[in-house]
Each structure stands twice: as structure tokens, then as C-alpha cells.
Design a protein that fits this description.
single chain; 6 helices; mainly alpha; elongated
Length: 128
């Protein structure tokens, strides 16, 4: 009985962990870029919860949008109340729905503000 055992050598565990961390990091960077150029809506990302966002903080995702900084993010999340450090993957379905609805209403409010600012003020133009 000649039994030959083939040994499959795997890379060390710490190298596999580094490889996985790099995959997640690159995927998140790409997602943030797509959110910044408004190719992807944050509300959709929160509702769908793709694999790269499971351990991502909600604040990181929100701040990847244009015109969203730490202060705006903190005030926005205070409405729910939700911690900035809460991960997208740990959110309940109810929290996801609430956050997505708030984001949609915030976008409508911002669009209204931009339209009002773009409209010339009739009082100012009549004086010129």
C-alpha cells in the first residue's frame, strides 16, 4: 500500500487576513468614489448593505457624499438617534428604512434650498 499524501500549503493566516483587509479597503474606496460622484445613492447602499459595508461605520458612508462633513453627519444622525460608529451591517431593518427615508427627505430639502438660492431676488433686480 503506497499511499501518498499531498499536502496543500496555505499562506499563513496573517497573510490571508492582510489580503482580505486590502480587498475590503479597495472595495470601500471604490464605493466612496461612486457615492462622491453621485453614481450611487447612499440610501440604496444602506438598504442593500453590500459585503464591503458590513463593518463600515455609518458616518464614514455618509461623509463620503459631497458637502457632508462631520458636523452635518453628527446632526443628521442625532435625529434618529444613532451613533456615528454604528456599523452598516449591525443596523436593523427598521433602522435602515428610517435612515433611508431621512436621507431622501434631506436630499429633497437640499435641492429646494439650491433652487431658492439660484432664483434671483426680484427686490434686488428691480433696484439695479
Amino acid at each position: 500500500m503506497n499511499a501518498t499524501a499531498s499536502v496543500v500549503t496555505l499562506p499563513p493566516q496573517h497573510m490571508r487576513a492582510l489580503e482580505r483587509a486590502n480587498q475590503v479597503r479597495l472595495a470601500r474606496a471604490e464605493l466612496k468614489r461612486r457615492v462622491a460622484v453621485e453614481e450611487v445613492d447612499v440610501a440604496d447602499v444602506i438598504l442593500e448593505c453590500p459585503w464591503e459595508t458590513h463593518s463600515m461605520a455609518v458616518a464614514d458612508l455618509l461623509m463620503s457624499q459631497r458637502r457632508w462633513g462631520q458636523t452635518r453627519c453628527r446632526r443628521f444622525l442625532a435625529q434618529i438617534p444613532m451613533s456615528e460608529k454604528k456599523t452598516v451591517g449591525s443596523m436593523t431593518e427598521r433602522q435602515r428604512q428610517t435612515l433611508a427615508a431621512l436621507l431622501a427627505s434631506a436630499e429633497r430639502g437640499l435641492a429646494r434650498q439650491l433652487v431658492v438660492r439660484a432664483r434671483p431676488d426680484s427686490r434686488l433686480t428691480s433696484r439695479l
